Amino acid sequence: MRTRFARCSTVMLAAAVWLTTAIPAWANSPNPEQYPEAAKRYEQTMERLIWGVLGCTGLVVIVVIIGVVLLIRWIMRRKAAREAAPAQSPPPETP
Amino acid sequence: MTLAETARIAGSLLGSLALALGLTLIIELAVAAGVFGLRAKHELAVIALVNIATNPALNIILTFAGLLTGSRSLADPPMNVILAGLEILVVLVEWRLIAWALPDRRKHAFIISLAMNATSLAVGLLLFGGR
Fold this sequence. Notes:
The structure holds 2 protein chains of 2 kinds.
Chain A: H1 2-21, H2 36-84
Helix pairs in contact in A: 1-2
Chain B: H1 3-34, H2 41-69, H3 77-101, H4 109-128
């Protein structure tokens, strides 16, 4: 389960980071006075990109938080099991 | 933007996230163990996991906030308000998680969370000077 969680969050984190790097490209948008059509298309693409980045990041954050909560539950259960184990003493050995 | 440029920026972003998480883990685990005596393996694991949940999220949101507001420094007026709000949120989330995961420490969970986060924020601001 942990491997699957790590793989899933790594892929989404990588996607989010890759998309984040495209944001500074906004500064290279075409001049709207010279190329109104291209500038409009560029704006739409960048807006879609921003929402994609925010969505990916939100998903990564949610997946990481769910994974952490599951891991903490696993730690708590393991601790409880270890504490309960000595209470059940092994049967005395017969010669 | 070229592929090499994209890879460089992505690398630096991931590097800064890893550095921030590493430093936070060192500082907060030291405070938890040194000041509050949380030295059992499961207690340290819970503190580390809680930070893994909150720290990258905080830094990613701060990065976005910086990009959207055009701020370069955490000392700028919109960014310091966002940072303060996010830090309060992180203290509250960590408090609830610690109280839930470590029932023996429930009484002091808020103080533990507040002290850990105040220390790591202070050290971060001292080291990076609000960048």
